[in-house]
Amino acid sequence: MKNYFACLFLSFLCAVNAAAEPAAAPAIDIAQTVVKLPLADDVTPEDAIDSMKLRANVLNFKLVAHQPLSKELESMGVETKRMEIFQFCDPRIARRMVSHDISFAAYLPCRIAMVEDENGKVWLVMMNLDMFIGSAKLPPELEKDALRVRDSLGEILQAGANGEL
Prior knowledge:
Blueprint: H1 2-20, E1 34-38, H2 45-58, E2 62-67, H3 69-75, E3 83-89, H4 91-100, E4 110-116, E5 122-127, H5 129-135, H6 140-162
Antiparallel strand pairs: 1-5, 2-3, 3-4, 4-5
Helix pairs in contact: 2-6, 4-6
């Protein structure tokens, strides 16, 4: 497990380094590629985690992985703010999407990150799926599945941010 986090951290550092180099692709505002919500003032990170897990269960989404990156960094002697990644999945939809186009495997499972900013405010952050659904050219039944995933993740994000049990 420790090697997994070390590899994940090294991959992150490589991606940051690559992103710092000029790219041939058109520039995009990274803020437009994500949806982020702050935790409500009366919601603790633990409340948010419980709420996300419960909402995911109600929506038949499975929490398939949890990476407490800040704990891993701390074990390496690196001071850090809270940073965790929660991975949710509806395996049936995942299978249908990957069967349609193997490229969708790169987006699985769906992630919601919990990140504490420099001011101590905790945020929930996920990919803006609208950007991808619109450009994916999906057949109607898969577009319906993709919209269900988007809506379900949005509900999970909202439940976490508001501490809705």
